[in-house]
Amino acid sequence: MPITGILLAAGYSRRFGCDKLLYSLNDGTPIVQASARPLKMTVDHAVAVVRPDSIALANLLREEGFEVVTDANTVNGMGASLACGIRASREAQAWVIALADMPFIQTATFQTVVNLLRQGAGIVAPQYRGRRGHPVGFQQSFGEALSTLTGDVGAKVLLERFQSQLTVFSCEDRGILCDIDTPQECKLSLAFH
Questions:
Q1: What is the pTM of this model?
Q2: Strands of the chain, DSSP E
């Protein structure tokens, strides 16, 4: 079953002060690369959604093997970005949705999401110590609902509406909860991991 990974990388980094996705971690790896690589390693096809003006980011993600798509509607939030990625990959049998500002998620966590989707789970999400996090997987049957999302809450509304179809697995990966919004959070996160 072909599974597509969608990396949401169209945010504006308003709290960060510059394009946080190009900000380097201690080892010199940009946040977006650290977020993208484990996703790319575990899916059959990878799509990144970026803003039309994010040329350097788009080039970097293409070098990582992602199909890059842009949409002016990404200004309308994460839901619009996710819908753009789904529409660009309608042939997928399932999707794994990841956020580009979450560089500490382990490859094994992505692989577990993919494995559960291949086993037929409708929606999949990891949890760490009782808190649900990212990435989240969806079967193709949710494609239409995903392709019409808007606003800044992403697919959260679908997780609530289809809770009976949600498979949650526990993991020891605290990276599933760690997104980076400010340079201070980046420094704290680096110390934490």
A1: 0.91
A2: 3-9, 45-50, 67-70, 94-99, 123-128, 131-132, 136-139, 166-170
